[in-house]
Amino acid sequence: MERMISKIYLKYSSHLPFLIFFISLSLRFSLCLFNREANDNHMEVINWILDHGSVPVNENCWECSQPKFYYLLNASVMSLLHIDSPAGRIVCAQMINFLLSAILLFFAWAFIRNQPFPYRVKIISFCLVALNPCLAGINAQVTNDTLAILAGTMTIYYADLFFRKLKILPFAGLTMSVILACITKGSGLSLALGMVVIYAVYLFFLQSSERKLPLSLFAIFIFCYLAIVPFAGGYFSNYKKYNNPFINNITLHISPPDFFHQTYVLRPGITSIVHGYFTFRLIELIEHPYITDTVQAYPLHRTSLWSQLYGHTFFLHFDQHPGSWATLNPAVLNTGSALLTLGLVPLGLFLFGSWYTCKDNYKAVKNRIGSFITTNLSWIHIVFFVSSVLFIVKYTYDYRDFASMKSIFVFPVLLSIVALFMEGVARIKSEMIARVIIGAVICLSLFSILDLLFLVNQLRK
């Protein structure tokens, strides 16, 4: 039996990426056809541009404080196609995101394929990206998140190419991707911060004779960024008008959390630093695999940042929002419990890979082996991930409402997470354990497909 499975795998393994593409895009397309809601009302910005013929300002609507590139792109397409009906505009915007998600998956596979790991590791890694139900759900909604995630994906893809070869084309792609991230969503600024840190570390460990070209390109990167982002992203105009480049419609008159003592504001999320940032409530997640939008009587895991990010990453119905996506169907919730159990496998391997990456690079720095830092680029994924985590911690510390704990702030660096996961898998020496890991990821992928099919069936009714 094992020999037969091996023969089938060897014969058809080259077709697996196309099969994964087909399944993931089919599910996304189905969601885009039937869905009419989103986590936040981004359609109001597009409608304002179309109906008023002008770009809205912060006071015009809740999402009007966001950078406008995504909304102008959608409004331009709808104007060109003469789409006027509300439902037609929603479907059009969702189809634009569908196309963007297809490009995202292309770059994801291109990046994974380029990594120095066995083919089977690349396949399960692509499954984790392409079949992730929460990423697919985001891709089917009218929000700027899909474009922001695409920009982050392209940034990491081009950064990986550029720092390996120092060629002009990857540099241009890297520069444009970072700029795109920052003029699409404010959280894209964490990518820019990560990129600056990576450039600085890379230049520091280069030999003096090798610094001329990368230093010149870094200067060009900074110039392009400063010439475009403050103006195209609306940050400069916000600073002039509101004395704050990062203005939004969420009140900031919120007291910061205490370290130990729990205090409650809005819909409780971060109640204290200890409860918010130093807990991971796995048992509660598996027993109660969803959150409630209430001020009181909510699951204990709702006040734990890492628990929320974990749930929002692996289970599409975890959020129970928007309204048409909510369900307490036992079959769906049991699927969620299975996903949150199986998700421990990629999470553990990601942490395992991160530990070894940090350990190897620490040894290289300690022993002053600069060439290791400039040739073995796994450390750039630590920087990208940490930059996104710092943003999330700052954001949740400031706003404290549970709705600020969003996996959409992590998905732009999903390729870095996958790269560290692959590093973790590569460190496993036992073939038996490796097969268990592959089996667990396959099961996770199948339950993810089931999670998405449940939602498609919900939305069709």
Description:
- The protein is an all-alpha fold and 461 residues long.
- It has one domain.
- Helices cover 68% and strands 0% of the residues.
- The chain contains 21 helices and no strands.
- Helix 2 runs antiparallel to helix 5 (86-114).
- The radius of gyration is 22 Å and the shape is globular.
Mean pLDDT: 93
Number of helices: 21
Tell me about the biggest sheet? none
- What is the N-to-C order of secondary-structure elements (H for helix, E for strand)? HHHHHHHHHHHHHHHHHHHHH
Low-confidence stretches: none
Class derived from helix and strand content = mainly alpha
Radius of gyration: 22 Å
The total strand number stands at: 0
What is the chains' assembly state? Answer: single chain
Q: State which percent range the strand residues make up.
A: under 5%
Number of structural domains? 1
Descriptive labels:
461 residues, 21 helices, mainly alpha, single chain
A few lines on this structure:
The protein has 21 helices and no strands.
Q: Any chance you could write out the topology, listing elements then pairs?
A:
Elements: H1 2-12, H2 16-34, H3 43-52, H4 69-81, H5 86-114, H6 119-130, H7 133-139, H8 145-165, H9 168-184, H10 189-205, H11 212-232, H12 235-242, H13 273-277, H14 282-287, H15 305-314, H16 330-342, H17 344-366, H18 370-375, H19 379-399, H20 414-426, H21 431-460
Helix pairs in contact: 2-5, 2-6, 2-21, 3-4, 5-6, 5-8, 6-20, 6-21, 8-9, 9-10, 9-11, 10-19, 16-21, 17-20, 19-20
